Amino acid sequence: MSRIVILGPPGSGKGTQASRLGELWGVPHISSGDLLRAHVREGTELGRRARPYMERGELVPDELILDMMQERLSAPDAERGYLLDGFPRTLAQAEALEGRLEALGQRLEAAIYLRVPEAELLRRLSGRRTCPRCDAIYHVDTMPPKREGICDRCGAELIQREDERPEVIRKRLAVYAKQTRPLLDHYRERGLLHEVDGTLGVERVPGEIARLLAAAEGG
Asked: pLDDT tens digit string along 93-118?
């Protein structure tokens, strides 16, 4: 299985696991957030259309994100598969994505949900630090930079995002749970959903995901 959606609340490790699995399997890790920022940074037509929403602090319309995703999923390096991270987040997005994939002659083969308790999510997110220049992510406890407060990659000063402060995190988690419950039911009904304990550790989670997917293929 290689066309997979990685789901999970903020701080569950979606990006980390999608990146690791992508390297192991030789398929791209496609983050909707990274894709959107790249389009804006590079000044593409889609990026120019998205920029005003981002500058106003508004959500970029689903159609724009879907246009970006469809373009990316049709690239040569995605022919063998991909791991989607950050999209879809709602049932409406999932249904729209399925329509775009059908147009490409593709279909999702699995949805992995990383389960993590709220207390652990709060610990993870409140300790996260992000590079505003190259988007590298660190953690004050588990993955600190070599120099405190400075990005290893580009030397920029790290920041704590406003949406990663404890009081904001709790609101984000509540919104995520409300939005995502129908999405999980959607994939469960289609026999695509596999739940994984996201607290197993960075090294063990990829193996557990691989085991579940292998079992599903065998079944």
From this structure: 999 999 999 999 999 999 999 999 99
User: What's the CA gap between 190 and 29, in Å, rounded?
Assistant: 23
Return all residues near 24 (Cβ < 8 A) that are at least 6 apart: 206
d(CA 29, CA 203): 17
Query: Helix crossing, 62-73 with 91-103: angle to 10°?
Result: 40
Asked if residue 151 lies in contact with residue 136, where contact means CB atoms within 8 angstroms, the answer is: yes
Active site residues: 14, 89, 128, 161, 172
How many residues in total does the chain contain?
219
Is residue 196 classed as helix, strand or coil in its secondary structure?
Answer: strand
Query: 3-118+180-218 belongs to which homologous superfamily?
Result: P-loop containing nucleotide triphosphate hydrolases (3.40.50.300)
Nearest residue to 112 via CA among 21, 45, 41, 209: 209
pLDDT tens across 52-92, in order? Answer: 988 887 889 999 999 999 999 999 999 999 999 989 989 99
Of 88, 106, 115, the closest CA to residue 187 belongs to: 88
Pairing relationship of beta strands 137-139 and 128-130 according to DSSP bridges: antiparallel
What does the domain layout of the chain look like in residue ranges?
Answer: 3-118+180-218
Q: What's the pTM?
A: 0.82
